Amino acid sequence: MSTRNRRPTIRDVAAAAGVSRGTVSRVLNGGKLVSPEARAAVEAAIASTGYVANQHARSLATSRSNSIAFLLTEPQHLLFEDPNFSVLLRGVAEELSGREIPLLLMVAGTPSEWRQITRYVAAGHVDGVLLISSHRDNPVLADLLAHDVPVVACGVPLGYEGRVGYVAADDKLGAVTMARHLLERGRTRIAMITGPLDTSGGTLRLEGYREALGDLYDETLVATGDYSRESGRLAMAELLRRRPDLDAVFVASDLMAAGALATLQAEGRRVPDDVAVGGFDDSGVAAAMHPALTTMRQPFGRISSEMVRLLLEVMEGEEPAGIMLPTSLVKRDST
Question: Which residue ranges traverse the bilayer (predicted)?
Fold first, then answer.
């Protein structure tokens, strides 16, 4: 059928430009990984074919909902307690707003909520899912893939690295950097409060800490939290009981570091004189602490934009890809 008798499609633009549909999609979605020559060819093809990205018509023609889900697989209270989630949510919403794609917020922290969300998404109410805080044994990801739902994860999806696209901060190298910073400050009994060990952030930050400490690593200096403030408070108390001689602690999130700091102050430990404290994230909590927290900055704005870009590409048929972004050390008063 001639394009004179129907609305031009991305396929028509790709054929006219001599590029793949994925390349056309990246140009339309503002992607940066397109050569100047390919971009110029696509733009010329759009002009020559008369292609217009009419989202309503596209939805009717493809049976798509023209919406995307932001799915947090954590207890509901963490959406409001952990500032990282709201920062990611805001960044994703801004990226999609520019593309006129609605964003649905979904929180599923219990097995019954997992089942409800899976049924809703599998019914076609959203076109793709941005999966936030994936745990190794959580069945949601397997269920979404079984229903051929396009998914991109925030953080490495443990067990699904080759099947699911993801955007992650370099957790291991970030942990190496923080642990080395504490060593350079003259600390030798450096404890760690890890995140959940069924998440990539939990395991990779622990690996980086162990690598940096080398022969100084001691498992009695390690406790585990769940990224909540309360878990940081309790883990710090456990570490002080177990190793009252510790002189530094690397905490795998700023929110847990706030809890750890409260315990140290309650126990009369001066920070950083007696115990240096380092965090991870550089959320708003870090600068507001007293003393202000030295931490590893995650590039949340870039993480949000890259997640959206990768998901839109997967929705257009591209293969899933993984992106690892660098973190940076932010020195403040706690070390």
Answer: none
